[in-house]
Input
Amino acid sequence: MSAPATPPAATTASTTGRILPNRLQSPLARALRSWEALLLVVFVLVFAINSFASPYFLNAWNLSDATFNFTEKAMIAFAMAMLIIAGEIDLSVASIIALASTAMGLAMTAGAGVPVLVLVGLGTGLLCGVVNGVLVARMGLPSIVVTIGTMSLFRGISYIILGDQAFTGYPKGFGYFGQGYVWWVFSFELVLFAVLAVAFYLLLHKSTFGRAVYAIGNNATAAQFSGIRVARVRFLLFLLTGLMSGVAAVCLTSRLGSTRPSIATGMELEVVTMVVLGGISILGGSGTIPGVVLAALIMGLVTFGFGLLNVPGIVMSIFLGLLLISVIAVPRLLRRK
Amino acid sequence: MQPVLSLRGISKSFPGVKALSDVQLDLYPGEVTALIGENGAGKSTIVKVLTGVYQPDAGTITLDGQDLRFPTPDAASAAGVTAIHQETVLFDELTVAENIWLGHAPRGRFGLIDWTAMREGAKRLLDSIGARLDPDARLKDLGIASKHLVAIARALSVDARVVIMDEPTAALSHKEIHELYELVETLKAQGKAILFISHKFDEIFRIADRFTVFRDGQFVGTGKIAEVSEGKLVQMMVGRSVDQIFPARSHNVGEPVLTVAGYSHPTEFADIGFTLHRGEILGFYGLVGAGRSEVMQALFGITRPSKGACRIGGRVAVIRSTAEAVEAGIVYVPEDRGRQGAVKGLPIFQNVTLPSLGAVSRGGFLKMAEEFKLARDYTQRLDLRAAALDQDVGLLSGGNQQKVVIAKWLATKPRVIILDEPTKGIDIGSKAAVHEFMAELAAEGLSVIMVSSEIPEVLGMSDRVIVMREGRIVAEVSGAAMTPEALVRAAAGIEEAAA
Output
């Protein structure tokens, strides 16, 4: 434990009584005891074990390749984290990717160029977010029910349009979002991931909107009784999640170069896993973006490391499940003692 | 006649509050005793002592000449004391018979429930109170009055000798109330002793045989209804020794700040109109459920009135959300502090700045130094007791959480502050501090609306008092007309001529 941070000089001369310090603990002491610190330790461990286990691990290009298995999920996870902190959830994100990708395929068939394709992808995501947002925030339906419904609805539309067909033959320039590199080993997706991580950090931890999100997640009624526009914040969060699913749809479609209605199946649970592993309380009210970033990196490294060792996918998912449970259980067990 | 149940010298204290102090109560077989008193007189506490929910600190409970203790609610019900509560605790998804017998269902072989006996028993109990209900009907398909009958049948299923009815008519229609009166007659005829708690004088005089009056947790008097007048009862209820000192106030009120006209809501209130002036404390008195909080929450943008207009400083204010209310300068300190007060889980300073985020941010981004400054300025003024400003509000005591809520609102520089039962459940010392502070705010020119069910507080603090009953304003009193009797009469709907 550290000494309390020194309070600044008294602000008003006229006030009486004792002066409350700003903080009981310095920010550094708090950070060292945080969930994120624990995740950082896990990250370093996974990195070290991987380096010993496979000679191919410590290679810039291999590591760069490995980032593709989490960047798209992480983009959605940032928005999902805010949604879960606010006490809501969106299980339709993977289906939004399917619908957005299908819409892009239709646009491509109609002869759309790259900028239009991107706009169609983002617009479809946004539109799906509006549907979820209206049902939850305006009509007051529970988000888990609504988004289980729209999960079937959105993907169902893709299946009706595509059947067992696929859209292929996207224009050449479109491949940049999923396959291009900004500089050296840094792919477009990796750079976008980093930029979004910073943007979401600022939005959640430094903006008035982020504060409202935390207030709603801790007690929506009291937040409303404090003058917060609860319904509007919830609506915007669904919009944001829809938009980020659209962004992920553009990247994923570009990377695969084709659209099938089964695209991104099951991704919603991987996104939620990433968010929960990142220390976001599934009950809402707490968690941070740095936690989600670390969780994304850990999940990416574990998947990559196991891939190098030719571990079958099913074992990988067993390991991720155990990791999730133990990372959540261990601190709770330690605290009990 | 010998009483079935006698309570003598019962006292019960909670931290900071003496809820009951040396009270007595007698209940007679085949008679209805009305328990009368203001909100906070100790009526609910005595019911909880009688039903084994609370253990008295001192005193005796005598049933048929035997001293008894009710260590648990089960013990009370086994002894034949049963209560029908204001909000009946029943299970919507279960049948009528299951609701009646839950917890003490007749058992058959192997300890399994004897469904036949249960249905027949339920039928017998329902018949005995003249209720024609199907024992197999699901409770959710029944109306509120039928649910009450089920609750009563449930109360009788334990072979009750003493039946407590806590404001049983509060949620019933006119016709249903009459059916309930008939039921009370039936129970009397069966020799049950009935304790009837009500705020409505007309029904007390209609069905009670005896009365007992409590005031501030103390026994005031008892007697036969036939030998007492309404005026005498009112006097017993409110007449008090002046033991609370309220801050001296100048009563200098300024120009109108808030004007409300024709405010109506489909179910909660109708045609509410009043004017609030600068520097004024306007009291709102009424019984629980009179619609006072609902009016205040409509003014604060929680619910929307169906009709009516509200002007602030002469300009029409459209308030569709709490955010718009805060912008217009109306803020509300809720009665339900646990749910609607401070946001537990957030630190103190974030609670204080929550409605003022615009003032502590630039371009949507928060300035933490300004947040701390704003929080410190206002919490210090209220003498908040805490370890640091980044402490979780949930760790503070109730009184200090209330201070955080008030600090949060003062930081928005409001024109009107509405305090809903600001001193409910807090100890005498803190009460005085809240009263001091209200007087100070009014003196600085803030307009205060105080919703309170405590007559001394309403009379001691207010410049004017508005009394509400059943969703309407029934009286507005000021100056010398502000007497306890006037408030109680208006709130309970007693005609002047009946005095």
